[in-house]
TrEMBL record:
A molecular function (GO) term: lyase activity
Protein name listed in UniProt: Lactoylglutathione lyase
Record-linked SUPFAM superfamilies: Glyoxalase/Bleomycin resistance protein/Dihydroxybiphenyl dioxygenase (SSF54593)
Record carries keyword Lyase: yes
Classification lineage: Bacteria, Pseudomonadati, Pseudomonadota, Alphaproteobacteria, Hyphomicrobiales
Organism field: Tardiphaga robiniae
Ribosomal protein as UniProt keyword: no
Highest rank taxon of the organism: Bacteria
Span of domain VOC: 10-135
Keywords: Lyase
Pfam family, any one: Glyoxalase
Amino acid sequence: MTKPPAPIARMTVITLGVADMRRSIAFYEALGFTRKARASGDAIAFFDTGASVLALFPWDQLAQDATLPDHPRPQAFRGSTLAWNCRSEDEVDAVLAFAVDCGGSLLKPARKTDYGGYSGYFADPDGHAWDVVVAPGIEVGDDRRVHLDD
């Protein structure tokens, strides 16, 4: 019997657990992400990110759905970051300032990296870390999507 082909790997949605849905929805709308599928009200929020979807869901309900404990909620590094790739160092600086103006907090001011890039970090209202970066080998096209070298 022939083995069926493996599924094609893809990431379609990143879901963040949040403490206050309204606050988090307002933050991500202020950053400029377009909210979609609004019929769910404040139960869950979906944002178009260009090539995938960012979803917000109440922290305790997300933990319950994944059958994981919802406490203690980590205040430290969680082992993952989201990224906002930019076209220039000036854009990195502007995005970091904008995120803070929208209610985020600056984790690390932008600086040159040891790999030849330029990067800084902000956190959303729930502490989810975002890397704002210009990185060699990662081009941000006119379509604002990331294009990787082979």
